[in-house]
Amino acid sequence: MINNDFVKNIHWLGHDGFRIDGSCTIYIDPFNISGGPEADIILVSHEHFDHCSPADVSKIQGDSTVIVTEKDSAKKLGGDVRVVKPKESVVVKGVTIEAVPAYNTDKDFHPKQKGWLGFVIDMDGTRIYHAGDTDFIPEMENLNVDIAMLPVSGTYVMTADQAVKAALAIKPKLAIPMHYGAIVGSEEDAVRFKQELDGKIDVIIPSKE
């Protein structure tokens, strides 16, 4: 079972952006945010402007904030920046962060050779997977996570139907759709994702904060 109090502390910031409040305050791909509590950790999946936004990072970055990202985004960010590659992991402030692959299989927006990232966050007894910008890739079948945040919009990432297949392969206790309502995709994609998984995997369609 997932701790419901933990789930309540997952906040969708729009697009691929999340804030997770727990023993640490973690932001993932903050974009077009107005601000928020100071980050202990900021995870940046790749260098595209809607994921690596130095202006948005600066709104939540403090002197002790640690940024975990890949090499291309690291060039655009300052402070305590730690570079990781897929399949590497780091421990930051007691939180284990595993970098996992994120790439396209049938389009060229996110080439595998770039080494861009998804993340598995192990915090407070819960494992959360943020897929980053990706298609349904074979590496997903080896994940062991409680919560999976999956893009559903199509165009640059997998479609809702492909995300359903990804969720069934990953088998999380809870899935959360993302990557819609900003650059591409709509809430209809998230609803379709939820409907197709009804009775198979619990899905929460988040409200933007």
CATH class: Alpha Beta
CATH homologous superfamily heading: Ribonuclease Z/Hydroxyacylglutathione hydrolase-like
- The name of the CATH architecture is 4-Layer Sandwich
At CATH level 3, the topology is: Metallo-beta-lactamase, Chain A
Mean model confidence by pLDDT: 90
Walk me through the structure:
The chain is of the alpha/beta class. The protein has one domain (4-203): Ribonuclease Z/Hydroxyacylglutathione hydrolase-like (Metallo-beta-lactamase, Chain A, 4-Layer Sandwich). The protein contains 5 helices and 13 strands. It has helices at residues 4-8, 54-60, 71-74, 160-170, 187-196, and strands spanning 10-14, 17-21, 25-28, 41-43, 66-69, 80-83, 89-92, 95-101, 117-123, 126-130, 147-151, 174-178, 202-203. It has a 7-stranded mixed sheet. The protein has a 6-stranded mixed sheet with strand order 1-2-3-4-5-6. A hairpin with a 2-residue loop joins strand 1 (10-14) and strand 2. The chain is globular. It starts with a helix and ends in a 6-residue tail after the last strand. The model has no long low-confidence stretch (mean pLDDT 90).
